[in-house]
Amino acid sequence: MLSFLTKHKNDFIYLSLLLFSVGIGPRYRSLGTVEAKKWVGSILGLVLIIIVSGYSALHPIASGVLGIIAIKTATVEYCHTVAFFFMFGYLFIFRLADKFGLPLSSGQTNLIEMIIVLRVVGVAFEINGSWLAMGQAKKNENKEQKEVKTKDDDFLEKIDPNFEDLFHYTFNYIGLLTGPYYRYRTFDDYFRLPYSKCVDCLGFTINTMRMVPLYISLYLALSNIWPLEYILTEDHNNRHFVYRMLYPWALFAQFRQRIYAGMTLAESVCTAAGFGAYPVQGRNRSGHGPTVGYLKLKQMSTQEARTTQYDFKTVESMDVWGCESVVTLRDSMKVWNKAVQYWVAMVVYKRFPVKPLKIHAALFVSVIWHGFHAGYFFCIYFCPFYVMAEDIYYKLYYKDATGLKKKILGFIMWFLRSHSESYQCAAFLLLTIDRIWIYYSSVYHYWYGVWLAFLIIGMMLNKIHESSRPKRERGEVERKQEVVSN
Prior knowledge:
- Keywords: Acyltransferase, Membrane, Transferase, Transmembrane, Transmembrane helix.
- Its main location: membrane.
- This is Lysophospholipid acyltransferase 7.
- A two-stranded antiparallel sheet has the order 1-2.
- The radius of gyration is 25 Å and the shape is globular.
- The protein is built from 25 helices and 2 strands.
- Helix 18 packs across helix 19 and helix 21 runs antiparallel to helix 22 (403-430).
- The protein starts with a helix and ends with a helix.
- By secondary structure, the chain is mostly helical.
- The model is unreliable at 144-151 (pLDDT under 50).
């Protein structure tokens, strides 16, 4: 028992801090003034950083403060670029501290630093984005009889927080340990709008947390039955090939349970404090918040707020059932860590200036945000190659299938998607190139060969399908003419 507790000591400490953050939520929500809430939230955040990190707390605190100074020092035109390169530059030094004669920080401190990076860079892009949008709106005012199509009216408000507000946003305890990422706008709305006072926080929190004991139990059981280190042993290499091939399924299963537990508790921190609650008519999206009628929602009276229906989709990180059941890897990526996916899309993909390189820029930033280990590269950067093949088969066979055929094809695609994720997860967990090479060599690097074969065969089948299309179209025209003549 003692060895078990020692092995998972850091996990239990982190779990205890997350549960504390959930428990303090109702009290935090009931604080009387906005200033009290902001300062208490920031102090709690700093205390959590110090408890988790000890002397290493200097890194997330210093990087956050210096990042804020960089934003306020730079002009609004370039503050997002300055913040991006400064924060990722600091992240580079932080993770390679041993190369500079400094001690490396713990994995838990690394998680906090990752969240700090998202917040500081994200708010800089919000500031710049609102400035660009308002400038464009002024130009459009001078154009007569021209409709301006806007999907959302959020950026028509100027976003320009002062140093103190940026400090509170960066270090507020909500979401600081594990996420989720949320925008400065969501943070500001929490203090200014009445939603947190009107939503059923207890009901949402209980509903969110009800599966956490199962996730934790499954993680502890699976990690003890199929430990990660066993995959590197000679005993594992002497097992049957099918066993070696399927072992990553157990590793990915335990990894998912750990992520589900952490992300679900992180969401519960938000729901307990009423953070991220918005009326459902805003069609709220993870990370973003309301996508329609935002300014109208801000004008909602307290009386209307008491009778409206709410959700916490703005702070939803994981769609657990979606992660387990979706058919394609493309869809799986959309429901995994959705708030961070949103950050990557808004900060990197949509703002990167070279269109052909957008996806590569997004993947590269995602890799270096996770870390500099080879395992992150193998796991994340190889997803598009599988998706290329998957898209072909999805379009050719699954998209228009119905009934039993669709179910059978769906199961096959689900199995292949799950197997691909498990294979990639092995690299993500093993991290270093030497450890990855030991496992991949034990299975002869077979899955990369399968990917390549899938892609080549799929391209050939697609070409045959495209070449036969004129014949099918002529046949359909002839059948229609026969019907008309009859």
